[in-house]
Amino acid sequence: MTIQSYLSSLLGIGENISKGVMNLIDAISKPKLKVALISYYYQKPTISGVGIHVQNLAKYLVKHNCEVHIFCHGDEDGFYKENGAIIHTIGKILTSVSDSFSKKRLEYDVFESEVVKEIIRENSRKKFDIIHTHGALTKAAFIIRKVYNIKWIHTFHAIEKLRVKKLSNEEKQFEDLISWIEHTVNYCDGAIFVSNDLSKEGIKTYKLKSKAIIPNGVDLQLFDYSPITKKNVLFIGRFSKDKGIDILPKLIPPIMSVKDATFTAVCPGSPANGELKEIRASIQKMQDKYGERLKIIDKPQDQQILKELYQNCQVYIQPSKYESFGLCILEAMATGRPVVAFKRGGIPEVIGNSGFALINRGSFIYKVKELLENKTGCVIMGKKANKRAKNFNWNLIAQETIKYYEQVNK
Fold this sequence. Notes:
This protein has 410 residues and is α/β, with parallel strands linked by helices. The chain has two domains: 31-217 and 393-408, Rossmann fold (3-Layer(aba) Sandwich), CATH 3.40.50.2000; 232-389, 3-Layer(aba) Sandwich (Rossmann fold).
């Protein structure tokens, strides 16, 4: 007798057992999927949208009866439990390379070698059903897939070989290395793309066995609607050219020309030399000029702090040159803020008709200034944005991800 039939007879409700109870019984009776999520970025606070994605995915996979192990970068080797998931941290790698970009690439490589060892140890206790990689690091999963024949799914948050073309000259020196590593995705069992636009690029670039389009999500319990109270423009993004950081010096003066307007930029990263250092210097000069009206935050911020920053803005901007989805856009929308962005990648899919995806700098600046002078219009558009953001519910996204796990694992 199955669990379902046994409980039905025990409760005396036969065929009338509720659908909700049956779904609960199904979940309990199914064996737990054991999932390894590999992401260099996870620890809080993180500068990476990939890290935020993995934090939320892990939490909701656990809610849907998965055994989740996360392999990520940390201050030291160890493990702990968070929201029901087990976090395996790989300690900082100390290298003798002084160049920050070279150092980071070397750290990524050593990190993946350590991940292989950690996964082998955990797999010996109970075999993983799925290895799920996020971001640019795929070598560890490729090796485990080949040796242990564990199904491997990769989520494309970007096509790295295309994204690197939008980076600084110093970062572009690793274009061949990045492309070589990402080439391993040709051997994954399934690929998830966070937008339709990214999927089109992915299938042109790689030969994939299977694919699914599952968008990013937003934590609607944290990022909820808030009234507009301050005449502030907000930007959040890594200090990187693909996020449009080099455009910021051209956007700040026109925004400052609007009476009583302020500007806040959260752009973590302190480049020591090269092209990005020059951009940082030009922004610093503007900060000296505009004083308290221009606030630059160069350290990663916790999600609770970011929530407050969204609440304290009237307009959110995303001047990215490359953007496969735009998580910060979605968080701003959930808070009820109109978004002005460039029409790049997956941004139009996220914004829909509840924001502005523009094609050139002139129209971008005009729209930001127009919105700053029209609080009522911002409120109307912000409410539309909040409503649209509710379509990106993490509970539904986790369910779709598990369905894809099961499809690939057949």
